[in-house]
Structures are given as C-alpha cells and as structure tokens.
Specification:
With about 290 residues, the chain is an alpha/beta fold. About 40% of the residues lie in helices and about 20% in strands.
C-alpha cells in the first residue's frame, strides 16, 4: 500500500517561466517536466513539446503521475499577439484537462488575478465574477476551460503580484527612478515567489478544487509599495501618468498596472498590518540583491 506521506509524482508545465522555475526548484517530489525551446537543467524526467501544438501525447505524459501543475501560459510581446494565440491556448488547455480527467489526476493551474478586473476598494473573494482587464483580456480566453471545470479535481490559483527577481519588478521598478502610477491609490496584493511556490505544491497535494487565493505577503497601496522600493534602492519617486504608462508599456500593460485588486487571502486584514511592511522590506532587499 502506498504511504499517504509518500511524494506525489507530478507533471509540471511551464518550468522555464518565472513561476515555473520556482515550482521546479521547490518540488520535493519526482517530476515529469514539459519543456519547449528553453533548456531545463534539472534531474527530473523531461519531455519535449509545444503546448500549442495539436495532438500532444498528454495521456502518455500523465501516465504514472498523481498530480498536474500547469504553470505554462503562452504569451507574445504585443497586445495583438496575445489575442492571436488565446484561442489556440484554449484548445490546448481543453485537451490537457480532458487527459487529466481520463487519468483521474487532480489538476491545478496558476492563473492571474487580473481576470477579476479593476475592483477599486472592494475586497475580492475567491471565485468572484470574472471581468478581465489588461493582460487578462487575452489570457482569460485561453484559461476558459479551467474556469469551466474548476471544482472537484480541478483547482485554479488566482495569483496576485508575484514579487521576485526579474519579471515585472525589474521592468517597472528597476529604472533610475521609482514610479508612482497616477495617484498611487490602487491596491496591490503581493506574494513572495519562493513562499508562493512552496504553497502551490501544498495546495496541489490537498487538491481542494475550485478557485483559491494564496496567503499574501502584504496588501498595500501602490504609492506605499513605491515608497518602500525607493527607500530600499536609495532612489527618488517619479509620477507616471496613465498616458505615459501606455506609451511606454502598451495599452494592456498600463491597464494591468492601474488595476486595483484588494484580494482576500482568508486572513482578514492581517496582510495590511504594519508588521507586513517589514516583511515586504526584507523581500524587496532580497530581490534587489538578486536582480
């Protein structure tokens, strides 16, 4: 009989991405890793394929697996490009989920919180209505099969701003000055990438089903986040209008940056307590040192 505490072998997609790399290196279990063109230097079994390619042998790749963790999200460098591949992504996700269901493998996907849209001051609870904004206008199309099947055996993690070296932090906050977007009043819900990755594996094993939110590092206004980053970097804060942001990063990126998402992590107002800013400072310092 298999021990209930034995490592659960998993198929992991998106292992070369920002989140996927952390999932790969924090996994204390055997993995089968789907890799496309980017090299994956690990001591796990690697299978090769393009997520968007029709006819991938999902059934074969899921054979012997007890979990599916899906962190791959096909993207493009332009708003038009993201829209163009969205429908192909939906077809690929449908095939992947069908194979997981046929094998009885609990599936978990890491998706973004921008699918909720701009929620202003409202607390956003898990499973709130979808009203995608920014990047999510395209991503939500590809993620539709996961939303449709979210429930027993299918878990969707709504990830907020994931703080780590690279990705959005370097792009937005690595310049000579630190931006305050508009009046900076929009809410940012933030997780640390390493803590988030470890939590995802725990949730994958629990397989709660439905939509879930991760425990937050901090929940704060963008102007407060900018102030902590500026202090850590010894940099000045510069005001950025929405028009300037659109010109610099594009329409979808600007909408994503200006979206206000005060996400509920099931811990009340704890994520807004002053002690959490000390935790944020520590993570920001670590990210700056590793960027």
């Amino acid at each position: 009989m298999t021990s209930l505490t034995a490592p659960q072998p998993a198929l992991l997609t998106g292992a070369s991405g920002f989140v996927g790399r952390r999932l790969l290196h924090s996994a204390e279990r055997p993995l089968r890793v789907l890799a496309h063109s980017s090299p994956v230097d690990v001591e796990h079994e690697v299978v090769r394929g393009d997520l968007l390619e029709p006819g991938l042998p999902w059934s074969s790749w899921l054979d012997g697996m007890t979990r599916l963790v899906h962190a791959a999200r096909p993207s493009a460098g332009t708003d038009r490009g993201r829209r163009r591949i969205a429908k192909r992504t939906a077809v690929a996700n449908e095939a992947l989920l069908s194979a997981a269901h046929a094998h009885g493998v609990p599936a978990l996907a890491v998706h973004g919180s921008l699918s909720y849209g701009d929620r202003g001051e409202a607390m956003v609870h898990a499973g709130a209505d979808v009203n995608p904004i920014g990047y999510a206008e395209a991503y939500a199309v590809g993620e539709a099969p996961w939303r449709a099947q979210a429930g027993p055996g299918c878990t969707v993690v709504r990830a907020p701003w994931i703080l780590g070296p690279g990705s959005w932090f370097s792009m937005l906050y690595g310049g000579p000055t630190v931006p305050c977007f508009g009046d900076g009043s929009m809410w940012m819900s933030i997780v640390d990438v390493d803590a988030f990755a470890s939590w995802v594996w725990t949730v994958a094993d629990e397989a709660p089903g439905g939509v879930v939110h991760p425990p937050l590092l901090v929940r704060c206004r963008q102007r407060d986040f900018a102030a902590r980053v500026a202090e850590a970097r010894g940099a000045t804060i510069e005001a950025w209008s929405e028009a300037r942001t659109r010109k610099a990063y594009g329409k979808q990126a600007a909408a994503s940056i200006f979206a206000s998402l005060r996400m509920d992590d099931g811990q009340g107002d704890a994520a807004e307590a002053s002690a959490r800013f000390e935790d944020l400072d520590r993570v920001v310092q670590s990210v700056i040192g590793r960027s």
